[in-house]
Amino acid sequence: MALCPNVETMLLTITDCNGGGEATELHHFAKRLGSLEDAAKLKRLQHLTLCSYAADSFSIRNPAVRVILSAAPALRKLVLVGTSWTGNRHIPRPFYINNFVPALRNLTTLELINSKIEYDWDGPEQNWNGREYRTFAKVIEMAENLKHFRYLSCIKDDGIDHIPPAYLLKALSPRCETLEAIEISTDDMTDYGDSNPTYPYLMVDRSKLEHFHSLHTLRLDEICFCEHVDFYDLDTPEDIDWYCIHHMLPPAVKHLTIGMDSDLRTVLNDILWLGTAAVDGNFPALETVHVILQYGPDNETARPAVRKRAASVLDLLEESFEGSGVKVSVDPVPKICSEHGSDSEWETEVGSDDE
């Protein structure tokens, strides 16, 4: 690293864990970095991706992460793939926010891909303020220039649920004046085969978004905000209020992306009502509406049928938004996350601001 003082982008892959739960490759890299001291300062590093394929959960509390981030004062984009916020439960580590400050001062983009912030659905309500939440909230608090936040995850095989989107937004609230783009999508929130409870206090509504005064790009899955996501269980579905998006969407948002289950398409009528509202001039800032039809990642045979549904949904959207000036689009996407964090959709909408 002493020979590469001008490096601006770095991808570190973590593939091996020893018996102590440490990521050995990263550990040796950080040890070498630390031994070089000032000579190894990553003074121009702007984009760092830590991608973990370790058998055990890899934590941001790992000392190696601290060494690397403390050497990167110019960091603007941090992508964590496959990490956790507490690490191995049997090897608890303290979290010292001051060790992360050098890398957080100039950070504008934080992406957490398959990097679960845990939440105990069966615990008392006050558990949302637990260890993982506090760690995450500290990072957000210190990232004073944060503009883009992305949380995409679909890991469910460990039986641990994600922190609800409403609580993510609460943790992000200290950056309400700087955040321009928020993207939240978790398989916990889109898996209709599961029976996770939906509580009113977990739903995302306008009161949880309206204080983000700079927000112009928003992505949410339908179950994060849709009040009638279980409307098939209602006795009188004809009495449903199809204005969930209308009630949730801040009027200043320019680019809206909605994740929708390809089979149920529960929020489709709400999107069509949004089109009517846009035609009436209720959302003058809105420029694009993008719908993601989500389907099972292991069901490749469903892809042709989902593509046909996407074409049908696009026809409905174009008809509903006609005359509004809003550009609409639909993509069928498996419920699976990008391994390295960034996809063309996100880069097109918000990536250019970081260049």
List the defining traits of the structure above.
two-stranded parallel sheet, 26% helix, ten-stranded parallel sheet, LRR_dom_sf, disordered C terminus, single chain, 355 residues, alpha/beta
Describe the structure concisely:
This protein is about 25% helix and about 20% strand. By secondary structure, it is an alpha/beta fold. The strands form three sheets. It has a ten-stranded parallel sheet, with helices on one face. Strands 3-5 form a two-stranded parallel sheet.
In helices, the fraction of residues equals 25-40%
Number of strands: 14
Rg of Cα set: 21 Å
Rough outline: elongated
SS field, number of helical segments? 10
Explain what this protein looks like in three dimensions.
The chain has 355 residues and is α/β, with parallel strands linked by helices. Helices cover 26% and strands 20% of the residues. It has 10 helices and 14 strands. The strands form 3 sheets. It has a 10-stranded parallel β-sheet with strand order 1-2-4-6-8-10-11-12-13-14, covered by helices on one side. Helix 1 (24-36) packs across helix 2 (63-70) and helix 8 (268-279) packs parallel to helix 9 (303-321). The protein is elongated. The model is unreliable at 19-23, 189-198 and 336-355 (pLDDT under 50).
